[in-house]
Write a structure and sequence with these properties.
The complex is a heterodimer of chains A (229) and B (249).
Chain A (H helix, E strand, L loop, with lengths): L1 H7 L9 H8 L15 H6 L4 H25 L8 H23 L1 H7 L1 H4 L5 H9 L6 H31 L1 E2 L2 E2 L21 H4 L1 H18 L8
Helix pairs in contact in A: 2-9, 4-5, 4-8, 4-9, 5-6, 5-8, 9-11
Chain B lengths: L7 H46 L2 H4 L7 H8 E7 L5 E3 L1 H10 L2 H6 L10 E8 L2 E11 L4 E8 L6 E8 L13 H8 L16 E3 L9 E3 L5 H26 L1
Parallel strand pairs in B: 7-8
Antiparallel strand pairs in B: 1-2, 1-3, 3-4, 4-5, 5-6
């Protein structure tokens, strides 16, 4: 590492310098891929009914963005620019298949719930967006951090939306029954007082509404995100 | 010598190497995980068979770790039938043969004629009673639906059921896998054959007359899926009623 740096005269930079740390923390807040860049909304609507699926989906996306960014960054200087989009697609597709195969083998139940959405990670705009916008122009280490950061930004939002939807739609959090037993005839907890789960929260439109509310709160708190017009 | 990265030769060579490397890695991964994935599929199938046999309470104690053991505990024999109800294999030997039949594959495979399809059945012993579990498969609105029906000792009445689906609409068609829909099959003394052993078709109804014999209330908003269940059950059960009739007489 030091040899390469002395050749290129790059200023030696600690692995977790302030700039590098910002690569991870920025996408979590002010540059969140879902709420600020509004990318990857489609899957955010589909698999946020339960926290568990959101966690696995988030982890899968982190894996694909991080490793994909790393591979693309390593290949960026030897890649023919005419076929760079194809190369990016192949890298993303290969990683998605890896994730899908591993889930099928080790987490079969979750894999069934995610069904086609793991395969559809490849069409997630965040991934191609980060490959093209960041990994093609930056060194492997910052690219890896950028991938982790953006994946985590997506995963974080997914989990927040899923927590709201699971809590009010199914009365549980990560499978744990918070409000008691809802089965008719043997209700416990809140359900004995006539509380019922809200079916609307389970349906896809509610995910859009929750994402909208999060965007609203974030923009009203952070003036720099508001458009001037 | 510097390589011209924009030349056609370089581009083609780069693409070729990339495809070979990626293809090799994925093929290796797929082969090395195949056994585990297939084992998962077999466990899932055993859970589905057991869920028709056992009550919801008993099923809540069964997960992927102990399903195989419980399956061996309850399922003792199997039968493999032709479409006309003739026995191909039965007894302990039939248990393996019946489990090995991929009814989903046969249903989808257009090369297998309907009359050549194999009809597996599992025979369970529970609390000293002999119960028959029949797997069924059909079409829902968006994709395949399937299920298992448990027939009690009299070889007529339905004592248990479970339904599954691949991608029916949550809250509408997907409700077929819920307990309340399953209860409509098991709690109302539904029978698959009359006293003489002739098959009696089921009817999924909208008018709330589901309490009548062989009428089942459908699911509001899930009409096409409900009709799919009706078609699935009526089509799949026929060979088994022939088998039951010959066995009783």
């Amino acid at each position: 590492m030091s040899e390469v740096q002395s050749k290129t005269k790059a200023p030696s930079e600690p692995l977790f310098s302030k700039k590098n740390r910002k690569l991870i923390t920025d996408p979590l807040t002010d540059n969140n891929p879902v709420t600020v860049q509004v990318l990857g909304i489609c899957s955010a609507l589909a698999i946020t009914v339960k926290v568990e699926t959101a966690v696995v989906m988030g982890a899968s996306v982190i894996f694909v963005t991080a490793l994909g960014n790393l591979v693309i960054s390593l290949l960026r200087n030897i890649m023919p620019s005419r076929i760079r989009i194809i190369v990016q697609l192949v890298v993303a597709a290969a990683l998605v298949i890896v994730v899908n195969e591993i889930l099928k083998a080790f987490l079969p139940d979750v894999s069934e719930q995610l069904s086609v959405f793991v395969g559809l990670i490849i069409t997630n705009c965040i991934i191609m967006g980060r490959f093209e916008a960041y990994a093609m122009a930056n060194k492997p280490w910052p690219s890896l951090l950028d991938g982790i950061g953006n994946g985590a930004g997506y995963a974080g939002l997914l989990i927040i939306v899923a927590a709201v939807r699971e809590l009010f739609g199914s009365g549980s959090l990560y499978g744990f029954k918070v409000f008691g037993n809802a089965i008719p005839g043997s209700e416990t907890g809140l359900y004995t007082m006539g509380y019922v789960n809200n079916n609307l929260v389970i349906l896809p439109p509610m995910a859009l509404i929750i994402v909208g509310i999060i965007i609203w709160v974030q923009r009203s708190r952070n003036k720099s995100l508001q458009e001037s017009h | 010598m510097a390589i011209n990265k924009e030349s056609n030769v370089y581009t083609i060579v780069f693409a070729t190497i990339m495809v070979v490397v990626v293809g090799g890695v994925l093929a290796f991964l797929s082969l090395s995980l195949k056994d585990k994935q297939e084992a998962n599929g077999r466990v899932k199938k055993k859970i589905e068979i057991l869920s028709a046999l056992l009550s919801a309470d008993e099923m809540s104690k069964i997960d992927r770790t102990n399903a195989e053991e419980k399956y061996e505990e309850y399922i003792k024999e199997g039968v493999l039938l032709t479409s006309t109800g003739t026995v191909v294999k039965e007894g302990v030997e039939g248990k393996e043969a019946a489990f090995g039949v991929d009814i989903k594959g046969e249903y989808k495979n257009k090369n297998i004629a309907v009359k050549d399809r194999q009809y597996p059945m599992f025979i369970a012993q529970k609390d000293g009673k002999t119960l028959y579990i029949i797997p069924v498969i059909g079409k829902g609105l968006w994709g395949p639906i399937w299920g298992n029906l448990c027939i009690s000792e009299d070889m007529r009445s339905i004592s248990g059921a479970s339904f599954g689906h691949q991608g029916e609409t949550p809250g509408l068609g997907a409700e077929i896998s819920q307990g309340f829909f399953v209860d409509r099959w098991t709690k109302a003394n539904e029978v698959i054959a009359d006293e003489s052993g002739e098959f009696v078709p089921f009817e999924i109804v909208k008018d709330g007359t589901g309490a009548n014999p062989n009428k089942i209330d459908g699911i509001t908003g899930g009409t096409i899926t409900s009709k799919g269940v009706e078609e699935m059950v009526n089509r799949c059960l026929v060979p088994y009623t022939v088998y039951f009739k010959t066995k009783k007489s």
